[in-house]
Amino acid sequence: xxxxxxxxxxxxxxxxxxxxxxxxxxxxxxxxxxxxxxxxxxxxxxxxxxxxxxxxxxxxxxxxxxxxxxxxxxxxxxxxxxxxxxxxxxxxxxxxxxxxxxxxxxxxxxxxxxxxxxxxxxxxxxxxxxxxxxxxxxxxxxxxxxxxxxxxxxxxxxxxxxxxxxxxxxxxxxxxxxxxxxxxxxxxxxxxxxxxxxxxxxxxxxxxxxxxxxxxxxxxxxxxxxxxxxxxxxxxxxxxxxxxxxxxxxxxxxxxxxxxxxxxxxxxxxxxxxxxxxxxxxxxxxxxxxxxxxxxxxxxxxxxxxxxxxxxxxxxxxxxxxxxxxxxxxxxxxxxxxxxxxxxxxxxxxxxxxxxxxxxxxxxxxxxxxxxxxxxxxxxxxxxxxxxxxxxxxxxxxxxxxxxxxxxxxxxxxxxxxxxxx
Length: 422
Hints:
Helices cover 25% and strands 21% of the residues. By secondary structure, the chain is an alpha/beta fold. It has a 7-stranded mixed β-sheet with strand order 2-3-1-11-12-13-14, sandwiched between helices.
């Protein structure tokens, strides 16, 4: 009995069928403390829902234009969604009537006002800064219902007060363990993270991101990471942003990560403008930009017309520091990942445990791979049609290898790909 193609057990990039252009390329994962929210958990926010209103007020205990949300807003300026892990730690603001729902200094912005009414009942109003966000009429504290901002002490004795503030809330700086925990939680989230972003520039945090992403890529996931001023790795899946924000930090990473996540697989970001919330230091000459690009750094350069936004000089990754790397251009690594993930999807959906791994089966799979690559050429203009080649071989014992070569339209050289599917 001939062997049937055996599944590799590697999950294809985006479920069933070939991934459409740009499909699934829209989620950024960040370890980020916005000052409010459940600690130690991942929360997912979509671009379509991140608009002014009650939802944002309850999720972050602030308005959508609050500076604490700059990073999240910048990601969602381009990406379709952002997964946010809030590190644990911090103290909870409280008063005799209750405590803030979540730890952090944001809880100190909450106060409770109690009005004694004519019938002997009490109206308890929760204020966030100067805005009333909840109102309840009760006879005693036992009847109070928790809201999005306060967990009430139902054993308290209610009395009339013009304003009882919650105090004692404080933020905590996450340590390396908290950050590593956040990275693992983000990558374990049911939604596929396309880009893992870290903007703080801490070498230990950058190394944790790279280590986790490398592990996920070895398992078949096409995740990449965007870091701030990182020179130490030289991998094609690591993008490093050189520009500082106006505070001297890595805030520009968030906007760039959103750009990377939302781009089409064969699209280059060279020439894309920066329109993020953080100020940007982008006064670089052409010579400086070229030198930094050779060192694997993405650089935004001020436009010659002062009224226009700074633009990306070259869409590069850290493998550019290696002279022999064919994937140093981000458009190439995106195309590479897109091809690999789709071929794995084709194999897992139509061939694994279905088609025999004989010469005929290999030939059929090779034909389908060539058809897929031709689609990239004729419909999307991603590769040159005269460079497409594909071959599938088997050792007769279930080990399947697909070997192919294409030349990206944007680059005058071939990219060779070998995929071990079983």
